[in-house]
Amino acid sequence: MTNKVPLPKGARGKLSFPRLSFFLAAVLTLFSACTTPTPLVSRGTSDLGIVIERTLGRVQVVETTHHTSLFTVDGLGDLSHASAVFSRDGRYAFIFGRDGGLSKVDLLSGTVVNRIVQAGNSIGGAISDDGTLIATANYDPGGIKVFDSDTLALVADLPSTGDDGKSSKVVGIEDLPGRRFIYSLYDAGEVRIADVSVAAHPVVTRIPNIGRLPYDGLTTSDGRFYIAGLFGEDGLALIDLWEAKPTARRILNHYGRGEQPLPVYKMPHLRTWAQAGDLMFLPAVGRHEVLVVSRTDWREVARIAVQGQPVFVVARPDGREVWVNFAHPSNDAIQVIDVQRMAVARTFIPGKAVLHMEFTPRGEQAWVSVRDSDQVVVYDTRTGAEITRLPADKPSGILLGARAQRMGL
Amino acid sequence: MTLKGGLGPSLLPESLRDQNETVLARIIRDGVLGTPMPPWAFEISEPEALWLVRNLKDGLDDQ
Predict the structure, then answer these.
(1) pLDDT by residue (tens digit) across A11-64?
(2) Cβ atoms A267, B7 nearer than 8 A
(3) CB-side exposure of A323: number of CA atoms within 13 Å?
């Protein structure tokens, strides 16, 4: 390593004291540069993200400015159905694996800085509003666990035992303001709010009888409403978190109108950015429809016919379009709903098994993972043109670091 | 895949050992009403379902 120390202007001849101290400081800087690890690159993090390569237990670190892959990071366990949240400085991804693994990955160096296995079977997690706590939602043994985001040390272990004494699978975990987390109990049909503002004394509030088999949940981007999708009923549960004593009420009740539901070959997912203006776009279960509900009075506004069972229903950040992908056997397609016309405006066929879509924060790009084509496709959302295709091994989730700045992701 | 189950039960050999092959094959083809298990009869034949069940019972080599 070479490093030329420029002489201060006008400093010539003998080593004057200022010049000597400058020289010493330079030597010290050089010394420390040689003995401590140096960051690989000096750059910001707001255009970084990860692509999950589910079968290899690996992620790619990508950047959305030049649409390139920067690193691959191995050793993350079973990443089928993996998801992630980001530290508030955008530097670290906390990756939740199906096998209960929780890995903290440094996006700037492409390294795993910490990893624990915290459960036998896990479905995802959330990060607290202040970035200090990571919470995981677990199937086996159920319950949620809360960890210190610096050290991944356990802070709280909150079981999901229902009134029948049985442990429930936990789904739909989201962060709420004030170091709180909200989540649904699949088996017990209940929502709980864990207030971890005093870490040593977590307080859990129960909201029972929300409906049968909640499969996922979302909070609106302002953190006011929590919606749980119900697999066991024609409807969704809505909770207004601004009420003094929040309770659940049913919205879009009987949207199936008593008809025999169609089989569901992949569970839908609910997403915080299902909101476009004052409207929320939600996947119907067992219907080839996207349900549109008004955020003002929670009445059904429209239902939009699509070509299969919707899985992800995601509004472009400007709310002008809503992109939808589908369960098998329609999973080669993405349909784009024009919110002005309330109808499908175009259909993309990115390839075999479209698993996930993620918009850049201003919505000019959509990143799409196509598992069985082993590709990530980047679209220009204005023109619909492909910007690039990146090779990836069985890609599933694409999660961009801009999520760090949003509630409920 | 861990085959340890998600919303549904585990598909590992020890969980399936005591289960009847024909019944399991019927579950694959007909699904289980009221649960997330959908019917696969539209693209999985009876011999194929039995083949799947036997392979699951023997244990799949994930790699």
Answers:
(1) 444 444 445 554 555 545 444 444 555 555 589 999 999 999 999 999 999 999
(2) yes
(3) 25
Query: Token match 């049968």: residue?
Result: A212
B38 to chain A, any CB pair closer than 8 A? The answer is yes
Q: In this predicted complex, what is the ipTM?
A: 0.83
- How many angstroms separate the CA atoms of A226 and A407, rounded? 12
Peptide bond into A329 cis (omega under 30): yes
Report the amino acid identity of residue A14. Answer: K
DSSP string, A31-80: HHHHHSPPPS----STTEEEEEETTTTEEEEEETTTTEEEEEE------T
Smallest CA-to-CA distance from A367 within A46, A49, A86 is with: A49
Q: What is the pLDDT of residues A360-401, one digit of tens each?
A: 999 999 999 999 999 999 999 999 999 999 999 999 999 999
Is B39 within 8 Å of chain A by CB? Answer: yes
**pTM of this structure:** 0.88
Q: Is A120 in the B-facing interface, judged by CB distances under 8 Å? A: yes
Q: Does B33 touch chain A (CB under 8 A)?
A: no
Q: Is A338 exposed, middle or buried (0-12, 13-18, 19+ CB in 10 A)?
A: middle
Inter-chain CB pairs, A–B, below 8 Å: 35
Chain A residues whose CB is inside 8 A of the B30 CB are none
**Chain B residues close to A172, C-beta within 8 Å:** none
Q: Walk me through the domains of chain A, giving residue ranges and CATH numbers.
A: 123-264 (2.130.10.10)
Where does the pLDDT of residue A9 fall: very low under 50, low under 70, confident under 90, or very high at 90 and above?
A: very low
| CB contact A99 to B (< 8 Å) | yes
Cα separations in angstroms, A222 against A81, A83, A177: 26, 22, 9
| Strand order across the beta sheet in which A214-219 lies | A214-219, A225-230, A236-240, A248-251
A105 token code pair: 């990955």
Are A101 and A59 contacting, i.e. CB atoms less than 8 angstroms apart?
Answer: no
Report how far residue A303's alpha carbon sits from residue A282's, in angstroms, rounded to the nearest whole number.
9
Q: Where are the domains of chain B?
A: 13-58
Partner residue facing B38 (CB), from A121, A232, A264: A264
